[in-house]
């Protein structure tokens, strides 16, 4: 995910109580991004290991980015899917480097538009998610909207 062009207000916790709320509170977007990222990483390991089972331990130790590269070189993912996976990984990295990070609705839309060009969208989750994002405010969106990016990418 490209860094936003306009400066965004810092959401870094200044007090321990704020950090506690991030860790113990319900942050559905953070949970969705982390769990979706983990599912994708698991699948990348499985795909790479199918092509080289003797290297499974080595493959399991690769960073997410290196897993994408490995699968691209093995031909288990194409260049377009690899680029989408890199964008999803960049989104996860934004949370890793700023715990209070929250993607803007426009950033979600950009990811969904990119996914719509790459994944098969077998249950129309990407197109329905984009429709929801285009007709509602972010606080009105249901959780399934954010999860569909990961579900459809995993099923691709």
Provide a descriptive summary of the structure in words.
The chain has helices at residues 16-24, 28-51, 56-60, 64-74, 79-97, 105-116, 125-135, 143-155. Helix 4 packs antiparallel against helix 5 (79-97) and helix 7 packs antiparallel against helix 8 (143-155). The protein is globular. The model has no long low-confidence stretch (mean pLDDT 87). It has one domain. With 156 residues, the protein is mainly alpha-helical.
Topology readout:
Layout: H1 16-24, H2 28-51, H3 56-60, H4 64-74, H5 79-97, H6 105-116, H7 125-135, H8 143-155
Helix pairs in contact: 2-4, 2-5, 2-8, 4-5, 6-7, 6-8, 7-8
What fraction of the residues are assigned to beta strands by DSSP? under 5%
**What Rg do the Cα atoms give?**
16 Å
Tell me the number of strands. Answer: 0
Strand pairing plus helix content: what structural class? mainly alpha
In short:
The chain is built from 8 helices and no strands.
């Amino acid at each position: 995910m490209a860094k936003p062009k306009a400066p965004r207000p810092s959401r870094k916790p200044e007090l321990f109580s704020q950090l506690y709320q991030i860790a113990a509170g319900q942050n559905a977007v953070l949970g969705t991004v982390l769990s979706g990222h983990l599912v994708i990483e698991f699948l990348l390991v499985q795909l790479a290991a199918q092509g080289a089972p003797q290297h499974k331990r080595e493959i399991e130790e690769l960073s997410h980015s290196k897993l994408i590269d490995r699968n691209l070189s093995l031909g288990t993912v194409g260049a377009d899917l690899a680029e989408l996976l890199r964008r999803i990984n960049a989104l996860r990295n934004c949370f890793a480097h700023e715990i209070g990070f929250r993607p803007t609705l426009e950033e979600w839309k950009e990811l969904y538009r990119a996914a719509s060009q790459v994944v098969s969208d077998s249950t129309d989750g990407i197109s329905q998610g984009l429709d929801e994002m285009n007709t509602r405010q972010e606080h009105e969106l249901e959780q399934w909207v954010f999860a569909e990016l990961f579900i459809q990418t995993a099923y691709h």
